[in-house]
């Protein structure tokens, strides 16, 4: 995905108003129905503006059109989340606990760069608290599914950490290995999780009905 700030100047002049309504995509059917997941343009808009708020470092997110590249990448992310959440329900994974939901709300705040930027985005676009609750529930479900299916699959040994350190392909240049061993291990674990998520989403996309209506989806 392109950096949100870098894309800002390429916002499509035909993009809709700040908190737009209407269906962006349907996951699980060709038309809205009880067993399908409907993603609204407003869902995409809110998530994209949250990411933009973080990249702007707490500065107010301007209203108006967003870059189509940012909207497209955000919609892809939301479709991936919906696919994994639906699979979690299919295999009857236990629902997230209140503790899981509270933790995911905290992560959502981090996604927007903190509580204050998040509140500013919600106020700017006129989003309701219920939208954050739905986002937290879906993301918590996805996290629980991944934890259940990646158990032991993200372990990183010291040889891998040393190899990454010696490659210089990390943000800790100039620091001793012992100082950054655990941060490097987290980098490698994150890469494995991201790769696993990509594989899951690709597999689930192959057997799911997905109808994309958003014009910016290409």
Structure, described:
The chain has 218 residues and is mainly alpha-helical. Helix content is 60%, strand content 6%. A three-stranded antiparallel sheet has the order 2-1-3. It is globular.
Strand order, largest beta sheet: 2-1-3
- Low-pLDDT parts are 8-19
Overall mean pLDDT score? Answer: 86
Shape: globular
- Helix % is 55-70%
- Proportion of strand residues: 5-15%
Number of helices: 8
Structural class: mainly alpha
Task: List the helices and strands in order.
Answer: HEEHHHHHHHE
Largest sheet: 3 strands, antiparallel
Distance between the terminal alpha carbons, to the nearest Å? Answer: 14 Å
Give the C-alpha Rg.
19 Å
Number of strands: 3
Short description:
With 218 residues, this protein is mainly alpha-helical. Helices cover 60% and strands 6% of the residues. It is built from 8 helices and 3 strands.
Q: How would you summarize the topology of this molecule?
A:
Layout: H1 4-8, E1 23-27, E2 37-40, H2 41-55, H3 68-90, H4 98-111, H5 115-125, H6 129-149, H7 158-167, H8 177-207, E3 210-212
Antiparallel strand pairs: 1-2, 1-3
Helix pairs in contact: 2-3, 2-5, 3-6, 3-8, 4-6, 7-8
Which terms summarize this structure?
about 220 residues; mainly alpha; 8 helices; about 60% helix; about 5% strand; globular
């Amino acid at each position: 995905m392109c950096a949100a700030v870098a894309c800002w100047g390429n916002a499509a002049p035909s993009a809709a108003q700040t908190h737009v309504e209407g269906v962006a995509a349907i996951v699980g059917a060709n038309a809205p129905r009880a067993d399908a997941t409907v993603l609204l343009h407003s869902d995409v808009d809110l998530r994209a503006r949250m990411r933009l708020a973080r990249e702007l470092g707490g500065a107010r997110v301007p209203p108006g059109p967003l870059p189509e590249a940012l909207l497209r990448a955000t919609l892809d992310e939301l479709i991936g989340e919906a696919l994994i959440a639906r699979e979690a329900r299919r295999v009857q994974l236990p629902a997230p606990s209140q503790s899981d939901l509270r933790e995911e709300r905290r992560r959502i705040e981090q996604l927007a760069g903190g509580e204050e930027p998040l509140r500013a985005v919600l106020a700017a676009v006129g989003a309701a608290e219920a939208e954050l609750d739905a986002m937290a529930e879906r993301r918590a479900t996805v996290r629980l599914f991944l934890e259940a299916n990646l158990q032991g699959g993200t372990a990183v040994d010291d040889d891998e950490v040393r190899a990454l350190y010696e490659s210089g392909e990390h943000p800790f240049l100039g620091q001793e290995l012992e100082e950054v061993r655990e941060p490097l291990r987290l980098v490698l674990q994150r890469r494995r999780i991201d790769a696993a998520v990509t594989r899951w989403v690709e597999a689930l996309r192959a057997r799911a009905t997905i109808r994309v209506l958003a014009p910016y989806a290409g």
